[in-house]
Specification:
Elements: H1 3-24, H2 28-48, H3 52-77, H4 92-112, H5 122-129, H6 132-143, H7 145-166, H8 177-186, E1 209-210, E2 216-217, H9 229-240
Antiparallel strand pairs: 1-2
Helix pairs in contact: 1-2, 2-3, 5-6
Amino acid sequence: MNGEVIIFWVTAIFAVVGAVGMVVSRKAVHSALWVAFTMVNLAILYFSLGAPFLGTTQIVVYTGAVMMLFLFVLMIVGVDSSDSLLETIKGQRLVAIILAFAFGSVLTSAITSTGFTSATGLAQSNEATGGNIEGLADLIFGRYLLAFEVTSALLITAAVGAMVLAHNERWAPRKTQAQLQRERTLSGHPTPLPNPGVLALHNSVDTPALLPDGTASQESLPTAFKATPQQIEDGTNEVTS
């Protein structure tokens, strides 16, 4: 076994372990870290195969930009918040399992029915086009130009759609500091409101702050993260116990 084979088996095993860890992890942050671990191993595999541009792109763009963006979003939403395991639509879990097995069967059938020819290697492919970057440019802006442009149009459409959905139309002038101070004083809270997670076991934005008497303060939560009575009761019981 030469060095290339050893690197392949090590990185391949680590990549599969990271993929399995992403699926079985209960916390979203752990899943994101497992995905980053898998991407790093894929980048090492690219470098070992003589594709430095793909390996660098894998680390800089996917691991360093996309996955860190996922982690930042999870940190803002709250790393301690957990998704409900209750089915909002009856039978959706069974349908998801059936579709997953069907997709796996179709994918396995497509792979096994494909005919493979002898591999030529990246060295010969790079020599034919003048290098790894030149070969990728020839494929992206040549044979797969239409697919590349359609994908870029979809990404731009998704970005514009996200901005439109997140846009909040302002129908009144922005309030001044004096107006905000008067409204806060008249509302019965002359002092600043407590931040989410104050005196609680968790400090995420979806955890209500606890008042000195042990009750939860709904006013400490943003509008999108108002807690349910059951969540308030659970948080109070955890702290008082």
